[in-house]
Each structure stands twice: as C-alpha cells, then as structure tokens.
C-alpha cells in the first residue's frame, strides 16, 4: 500500500509482505478523532510492522497509522530518540 523503492528488480521490498495490501487505505488515515482500532488490528498481525514503523519514523510521516502506531505515538518515539541523542546515548531502531 505504501510507496517504496527497491534496489533490484527482483528484490522484494518489505511492503510486498504488508498485511494491509488490498485493505482500504482510508482505514489507515482516519478522520481526526475517529477510531484507529481496525487499522491497528491489521498491523498487529503484520510481519513487516517494525520495518513499516521505522520507515515512518525515518521519513517523518506525520499522518496515518504506520507500524501499528498513530501520529501521536510516533511523535513520542521521535521525541524520546531526540532526547537520547542529545544525551549522547545510542539510538536503536524499534524492535518487536
Ligand atoms: S504495519 Fe500496518 S501499515 Fe505497516 S505495512 Fe503492516 S499492515 Fe501495513
């Protein structure tokens, strides 16, 4: 469902394994205040959830559900990472 570039023509990207392939994209971009439960439910069983979340964090995706997290939840992670960087701590990618 998400835009993705691959290095090799036969190299499958993480998006090819997304649980949300074929799912209505509107589900992942709910109106303000609308429930995110259904989208997060799709993400819960997704084998590339961490790749998706890391992609959204790295690219500063401001809208929608990525990796099972809302904008607010991702903002919190970015803030924690910024604090850790400022404190000179190692910032590790999110893990399952
Ligand atoms: S984590 Fe969610 S939004 Fe990301 S690829 Fe998987 S199902 Fe799609």
From TrEMBL:
At the top level of its lineage, which domain of life is listed?
A: Bacteria
- 4Fe-4S Wbl-type domain location is 19-76
Q: Where in the cell is it found?
A: Cytoplasm
What the record notes about the co-factor is:
Binds 1 [4Fe-4S] cluster per subunit. Following nitrosylation of the [4Fe-4S] cluster binds 1 [4Fe-8(NO)] cluster per subunit.
* A GO molecular-function descriptor: DNA binding
Q: How does it get modified after it is made?
A: The Fe-S cluster can be nitrosylated by nitric oxide (NO). Upon Fe-S cluster removal intramolecular disulfide bonds are formed.
Q: Which cofactor does it need?
A: [4Fe-4S] cluster
Which Pfam families does the UniProt record give? Whib
Entry binding sites for [4Fe-4S] cluster = 20, 43, 46, 52
Where is it found, in Gene Ontology cellular component terms?
A: cytoplasm
GO biological process terms, semicolon-separated: cell redox homeostasis; negative regulation of DNA-templated transcription
- UniProtKB keywords: 4Fe-4S, Cytoplasm, Disulfide bond, DNA-binding, Iron, Iron-sulfur, Metal-binding, Transcription, Transcription regulation
Return the similarity comment.
Belongs to the WhiB family.
Q: Which HAMAP family match?
A: WhiB (MF_01479)
Function recorded in the entry: Acts as a transcriptional regulator. Probably redox-responsive. The apo- but not holo-form probably binds DNA.
Protein's recorded name: Transcriptional regulator WhiB
Q: Please report the organism this UniProt entry assigns to the protein.
A: Actinomarinicola tropica
Highest classification ranks of the organism: Bacteria, Bacillati, Actinomycetota, Acidimicrobiia, Acidimicrobiales
